[in-house]
From TrEMBL, chains A, B:
SMART domains in alphabetical order: Iso_dh
Protein name (Swiss-Prot/TrEMBL): D-malate dehydrogenase (decarboxylating)
The keyword Manganese is assigned to this record: yes
Cofactor entry: Mn(2+); Mg(2+)
EC number(s) per entry: 1.1.1.83
Pfam families: Iso_dh
Length: 349, 349
């Protein structure tokens, strides 16, 4: 019997509220399919930071490096600067565990109309580079406190880093509709984006069956709104992928339910699964957060663990529950609680 | 009688086609209102680059520095790398002439429905920082040709540069509905964006009647689609402002007609006015490009020159022509030519 050990980091706010029923549902799925799943909980969070001065213990990463996967709720809380909480927890996990692929599937869900008059068939995946690029510790302030003060930030793109994310995107496209769109800004950003384009052009030759194009990030953002059904796989840098995936979720009407996977495709380290939404201080503590983002992320985790049958069953149950539409949290126009919606998904399995 | 000298740079592709009728219409407006306007034409373009190896002559900027304003069509053409054409013409003009404000008004135009089911009342302005930030010459390649190859790019934010764009946005908000949204990414980009936030917080105190909030660029992009009527003035860095203004134009259904102004508010140098659209090689030479972006930009130029009555008349004529809907270029679903649509606007004046 397969056994999995999962590190659970509920984090802050509604992260805690959506993670609890997700763990329950995973246990249910394991019973049903006959595999074993054990959960270790870690209280790493802004609450912990406010008590101890650190988001996680110094040996935090060692404590979870041998787990089969990480399930994360949400990180961030008012009073703790975002760059403190995120660079103290989320970003080190992504980087030290070489989770260089951030995968965000986007599709219009049945029964959730979304903001567009006529979205067409929306079904694509954003493949975001997740460990280098525009987010970096390199840089700082100069002449602080004077009129000459400035801040600089170094974006770092490596050939190895760009190559592997581009290869991942093209490989993924061969299992889908065979088209890649590369997000760039080589007309404005002088050194890194022409480099990115050059590598995309080279690596595209590995997969001659995949067609591809590049679009500048400004035009691409516009096109996501004007013609979202024209995309299959979008590959972008850390920042561009971040912007495009949130935007795409909005276009698909699914910002509150969007899932994400932070993958180390080499499997040297555990991968991490987290809903796209944040800790939502405005509704935290009320028990009304939408658990679909967390559940959908759990379904991606099951796929990654090799339990694809259970992952598919969970995703099908999510779709059926949303399509049915009887049980909805307030963000989807209903009155159900987090627990009630999760229970409805469990029943649909 | 007031006299203005305008430098006209039609540039490439449809840039040439939309600039010609815009110049004619400006002459017509000048006759009508009793001011004088003289145009000097400059053939700076990718065509020039392909002949001479330079987008503009070495003393190009000196040739236009004493003009009252610059009217630009579009820059860029297949075969000339974008970073060559743009850093050889558009970006030096913006930078050397201290056009630190890039202003892009966004509104849903009568008769142009746009992609959103229910956009509400969309009427806001994107104030984009235009001379520093993420676009910079600082950086380069390292270990070229090896497996260790990398490219780095330095983003540079100065206190002076951020302060003046933020002040501009807050001042502008006092003449509108009194709300500013600041685009940030201080949760991901460690050094420059917390610096940006800090300056916004400080400078906001200058205009206590203006309310403001900050949003991370990913969430902000999503909100532009989900709730575009919640914005009044959006202020963002060079890159964020670029992305948001294209996205916003798409949301408003007006990507082909959007105008922009590159302003030196200190008036030490000429400001530059250009449609947001590019040179559009796919339809260039056919005489069917939409001239509204260029005409609307010309209306912003008239405002800037102090000929507000004429600027308003031109904008009103644009609105009336679009609302009327009889004369439309193919991008708006009609069959009119560039000249025909421009003539219709002229008639409506
Ligand atoms: C062409 C490009 C360099 C330019 C920019 O990003 O500044 C364009 O997108 C714009 O918005 O004016
Ligand atoms: C919270 C923030 C640092 C993070 C990111 O930008 O990576 C988030 O927006 C995400 O997309 O996971």
């Amino acid at each position: 019997m397969s056994r999995y050990r999962i590190a659970v980091i509920p984090g802050d706010g509604i992260g805690v509220e959506v993670t609890a029923p997700t763990v329950d549902l995973l246990e249910h799925l394991a019973d049903r399919a006959g595999f074993e799943i054990a959960f270790d909980h870690f209280d790493w969070s802004c609450a912990r930071y406010q008590e101890t001065g650190a988001m996680m213990p110094p040996d935090g990463l060692d404590q979870i490096r041998d787990h089969d996967a990480i399930l994360l709720g949400a990180v961030g809380w008012p009073g703790v600067p975002d760059h403190v909480s995120l660079w103290g927890l989320l970003i080190p996990i992504r980087r030290r565990f070489q989770q260089y692929v951030n995968l965000r599937p986007i599709s219009v869900m049945p029964g959730l109309p979304g903001p567009l008059r006529d979205p067409g068939e929306v079904d694509f995946v954003v493949v975001r580079e997740n460990v280098e690029g525009e987010y970096s510790e390199i840089g700082g302030r100069f002449s602080t406190g004077t009129a000459q003060e400035m801040a600089v930030q170094e974006a770092v793109f490596t050939r190895a880093g760009v190559t592997r994310i581009v290869d991942y995107a093209f490989d993924l496209a061969t299992t889908r509709r065979g088209h890649v769109t590369s997000a760039t800004k080589s007309n404005g950003i002088v050194h890194t984006m022409p480099f990115w384009d050059e590598i995309v052009r080279e690596r595209a030759e590995r997969q001659p069956s995949v067609s591809w194009r590049q679009e500048h990030i400004d035009a691409l953002a516009a096109k996501l709104v004007l013609d979202p059904s024209s995309f299959d796989v979008i590959v972008g840098s850390n920042l561009f992928g971040d912007i495009l995936s949130d935007l795409a979720a909005a276009v698909a009407g699914s910002i509150g339910i969007a899932p994400s996977a932070n993958l180390d495709p080499e499997r040297d380290f555990p991968s991490m699964f987290e809903p796209v939404h944040g800790s939502a201080p405005d509704i935290a503590g009320k028990g009304i957060a939408n658990p679909i983002g967390a559940l959908w992320s759990a379904s991606m985790m099951l796929d990654h663990l090799g339990e694809k049958r259970s992952g598919d069953a969970l995703l099908a149950a999510i779709r059926a529950t949303l399509a049915d539409g009887d049980v909805r949290t307030p963000d989807l126009g209903g009155t159900a609680t987090t627990r009630e919606l999760a229970a409805a998904v469990q029943e649909a399995i």
